[in-house]
């Protein structure tokens, strides 16, 4: 088609409208208008340049889309897939509490690396959302750790990567942004108990009638939701093993929910061998529950959970955390949180010389490197022990 015929003179100058490629979702041709230009020659040069870019596949003009509508669409259609309810809830808080208040009405094409760096600088300075006005500034102000900032950074990076894939922006502004530095925390050893501390705690827990879940937790290192989500069909007494098939969590406004593991979950259906002592504890628990069901009927523990309260209902994860905290508080042991039982299991396994791949499989880490990074102090102790043993072998 004659280029000159594509250029139209209107009230404010010269304009043209041409195909600029296909819509990535519908596959239909997209047309776009350009102008005004002061002269027909200027319009013609621009038309030739854009048409050449379209033919070469280098043309790019981002659509106008504000950050809030984009982040909500991405979060619901992409991020929430195959994530635990707890993760979704905590990340949703970041989106609603930090990202939307700051970037909300900005066009995502206008969010560059400088804007990102400024956002994180203000988060560090203010200790809360820099755009949010606090009624009681000093009360609401709190420092945000680099670990927390790293989570925010990662969430933004994932979102902007997808924005590039969706054709909304050409370059991910996070690629050149100043990334929060999370130091390799070698103080993890202080968040785990020694075997002596474990025994002190278990003795105290037994007096409160809660030893079973804590004992299984410290021996297997499984997560709180996985522990309380165990059902009797997950227990293989014959082979002395448990299978992680789901997780128990509390959904805001809806109460306790059970979520089965998905096939894409990195810790999906992992099988963990359990020692005779744990098998015996679970056998006694099962016998007691069967006896109670005979007395109270099938409504007692109708969902078949391994760990239940005195009413036959699953134990609330927050309740278990609270009871753990109350017990630890009065003991002469390191004041760790409930997740510290998981750290304790991993640390003690590493110190016993269990291969890191086995520890990683037990914990349900996606990669062995995650285990190595997290428990590097135990790995260092094992290496030191190995070199000491080699020294004795050579020189004794």
UniProtKB/TrEMBL annotation:
<feature type="domain" description="Core-binding (CB)">
    <location>
        <begin position="65"/>
        <end position="164"/>
    </location>
</feature>
<dbReference type="InterPro" id="IPR010998">
    <property type="entry name" value="Integrase_recombinase_N"/>
</dbReference>
<keyword id="KW-0229">DNA integration</keyword>
<dbReference type="Pfam" id="PF14659">
    <property type="entry name" value="Phage_int_SAM_3"/>
</dbReference>
<dbReference type="Pfam" id="PF00589">
    <property type="entry name" value="Phage_integrase"/>
</dbReference>
<dbReference type="InterPro" id="IPR044068">
    <property type="entry name" value="CB"/>
</dbReference>
<keyword id="KW-0238">DNA-binding</keyword>
<dbReference type="GO" id="GO:0006310">
    <property type="term" value="P:DNA recombination"/>
</dbReference>
<dbReference type="GO" id="GO:0015074">
    <property type="term" value="P:DNA integration"/>
</dbReference>
<dbReference type="InterPro" id="IPR002104">
    <property type="entry name" value="Integrase_catalytic"/>
</dbReference>
<comment type="similarity">
    <text>Belongs to the 'phage' integrase family.</text>
</comment>
<dbReference type="InterPro" id="IPR013762">
    <property type="entry name" value="Integrase-like_cat_sf"/>
</dbReference>
<dbReference type="Pfam" id="PF14657">
    <property type="entry name" value="Arm-DNA-bind_4"/>
</dbReference>
<dbReference type="InterPro" id="IPR004107">
    <property type="entry name" value="Integrase_SAM-like_N"/>
</dbReference>
<dbReference type="GO" id="GO:0003677">
    <property type="term" value="F:DNA binding"/>
</dbReference>
<dbReference type="InterPro" id="IPR028259">
    <property type="entry name" value="AP2-like_int_N"/>
</dbReference>
<feature type="domain" description="Tyr recombinase">
    <location>
        <begin position="188"/>
        <end position="388"/>
    </location>
</feature>
<dbReference type="InterPro" id="IPR050090">
    <property type="entry name" value="Tyrosine_recombinase_XerCD"/>
</dbReference>
<keyword id="KW-0233">DNA recombination</keyword>
<dbReference type="InterPro" id="IPR011010">
    <property type="entry name" value="DNA_brk_join_enz"/>
</dbReference>
<protein>
    <submittedName>
        <fullName>Integrase</fullName>
    </submittedName>
</protein>
């Amino acid at each position: 088609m004659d280029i000159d015929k594509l250029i139209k003179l209107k009230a404010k100058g010269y304009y043209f409208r041409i195909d600029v490629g296909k819509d990535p979702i519908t596959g239909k041709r997209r047309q776009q208008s350009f102008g005004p230009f002061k002269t027909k020659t200027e319009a013609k040069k621009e038309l030739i340049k854009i048409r050449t870019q379209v033919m070469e596949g280098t043309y790019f003009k981002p659509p106008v889309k504000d950050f809030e509508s984009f982040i909500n669409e991405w979060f619901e259609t992409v991020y929430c897939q195959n994530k635990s309810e707890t993760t979704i809830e905590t990340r949703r808080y970041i989106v609603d509490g930090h990202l939307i208040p700051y970037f909300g009405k900005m066009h995502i094409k206008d969010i560059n690396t400088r804007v990102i760096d400024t956002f994180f600088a203000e988060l560090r300075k203010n200790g809360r959302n820099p755009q949010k006005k606090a009624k009681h500034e000093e009360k609401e102000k709190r420092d945000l750790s680099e670990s927390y900032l790293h989570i925010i950074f990662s969430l933004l990076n994932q979102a902007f990567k997808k924005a590039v894939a969706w054709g909304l922006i050409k370059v991910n502004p996070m690629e050149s942004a100043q990334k929060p530095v999370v130091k390799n925390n070698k103080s993890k050893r202080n968040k785990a108990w020694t075997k002596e501390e474990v025994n002190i705690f278990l003795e105290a827990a037994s007096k409160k009638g809660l030893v079973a879940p804590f004992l299984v937790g410290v021996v297997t290192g499984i997560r709180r939701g996985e522990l309380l989500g165990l059902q009797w069909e997950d227990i293989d007494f014959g082979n002395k093993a448990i299978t992680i098939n789901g997780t128990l969590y509390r959904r805001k406004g809806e109460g306790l929910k059970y979520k089965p593991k998905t096939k894409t979950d990195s810790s999906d259906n992992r099988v963990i061998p359990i020692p005779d002592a744990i098998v015996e504890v679970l056998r006694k628990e099962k016998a007691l529950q069967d006896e109670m069901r005979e007395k109270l009927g099938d409504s007692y523990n109708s969902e078949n959970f391994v760990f239940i309260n005195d009413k036959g209902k699953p134990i609330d994860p927050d309740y278990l955390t609270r009871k753990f905290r109350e017990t630890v508080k009065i003991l002469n042991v390191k004041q760790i949180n409930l997740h510290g039982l998981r750290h304790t299991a991993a640390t003690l396994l590493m110190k016993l010389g269990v291969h890191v791949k086995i520890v990683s499989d037990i914990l349900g880490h996606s990669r062995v490197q995650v285990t190595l990074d997290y428990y590097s102090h135990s790995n260092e102790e094992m290496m030191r022990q190995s070199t000491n043993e080699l020294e004795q072998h050579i020189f004794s």
